[in-house]
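Supplementary notes for students who missed Thursday's class. We covered one full example, reproduced here. Read the sequence, then the structure, then the short commentary at the end.
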Amino acid sequence: MITYYDDKSVRITSAEIRVGQQRFPLRDLYRIWQRRGARSWGALAGRGMVGIAFVAPVVTAILGLVTALTIQASPTITIALVGGSILVGLAIVPLADLLLGLLDDSYDRGSHVLELWVEARGVPVLLVASRDALRIGRIHRSLRRAVEAALDAEARTTARERDGVQRAAIASGSELVREQRHGQQARRPQVQAGHGQRGGRQIERAYRPTSDP
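Structure (token representation):
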């Protein structure tokens, strides 16, 4: 048995797909499709928070520099404002990689709930619903590969069975022809022997010597 996909809730093999406690044989699946569900406002809010966390130190540093250069303050205060603004701006550097990674993951997952559907024995069935677009895509591709492989295997089995039936029919016909030929060959010498006996008697009657009177 070949395993095409396996995680904590979905398992796809060459025979079936298991989702939780539900099992669907691949031979019963006819259609596979994705559907976009409702928008997740929580995902959008999370992106906004990550964006604010990324931009806020930079904006704060710029405002501090502008303030330090525009107000009429003592050199000590001006230097303090400039130094503080620079430090605040540099604070984003160690966090930039983390924040960009969070933002990238958020876009990969998407802001919509994705649904994976199949038609099993003529009935639409919702298999998986998730915002994780990567996971839904992997499950979708794995399921398609498994179904296509199962259909190919079934087609090869059907072709082998059809070839076996045809070969059996050809062998049966050949055996019947051999039996007919054998029967004809078995009857032919008897007929020839019969003709030879009758012919011999006719010749004997025709050429039987007669005695002189």
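Commentary. The first strand starts at residue 3 and ends at 6. The mean pLDDT is 75. If anything here is unclear, bring it to office hours.
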